[in-house]
Amino acid sequence: MCHVKHDNVVCYYLYMTLHTFLEQNSQWKQEENTLTGEFTFDGFSGVSAAIQQCMQLAKKLDHHPEATFGYKTIKIVLTTHDAGSSITELDVEFAQTFTQQLR
């Protein structure tokens, strides 16, 4: 499994995929060994729908992020603990799919 940990690139393809994704999706950032997304909605109904999508995607991918939310905001933190708490293909896939679902 390829992973990125603390800017130590283990897999070039993953690095390029992550880099391209981050350039195209400003709500996501690489923070140390996590991929973190922050989203703002008009109100709680938008937040509620997005949290439901997040939970369904987590179940589908069998990959469970840390998610916190408020009245208008959601923060999602992705890392793969089985890969030494680093960013893997699964984290990028989750972020890509979740972002596409919100559009």
Structure characteristics:
103 residues, alpha+beta, Gyrase A, domain 2, four-stranded antiparallel sheet, globular
Secondary structure elements and their pairing?
Layout: E1 3-5, E2 8-9, H1 12-24, E3 28-31, E4 34-40, H2 44-61, E5 66-69, E6 73-78, E7 87-88, H3 89-102
Antiparallel strand pairs: 1-2, 1-7, 3-4, 4-6, 5-6
Note down, in words, how this protein is organized.
- It is built from three helices and seven strands, in the order E-E-H-E-E-H-E-E-E-H.
- The strands form two sheets. Strands 3-4-6-5 form a four-stranded antiparallel β-sheet, covered by helices on one side. A three-stranded antiparallel β-sheet has the order 2-1-7.
- The chain has a single domain, classed as 2-Layer Sandwich (Gyrase A, domain 2).
pLDDT < 50 stretches: none
Topology as a string of helices (H) and strands (E) = EEHEEHEEEH
Share of residues in helices: 40-55%
Class from helix and strand fractions: alpha+beta
CATH architecture: 2-Layer Sandwich
Strand order of the largest sheet: 3-4-6-5
Query: How many distinct domains?
Result: 1
User: Into which percentage range does the β-strand content fall?
Assistant: 25-35%
**CATH class category name:** Alpha Beta
**Would you tell me the overall average pLDDT?**
91
CATH superfamily: Transcriptional coactivator/pterin dehydratase
Number of helices: 3
Give the CA-based shape.
Answer: globular
CATH topology (level 3) name: Gyrase A, domain 2
The tally of beta strands, per DSSP, is 7
N-to-C CA distance = 29 Å
Q: Rg, please?
A: 13 Å
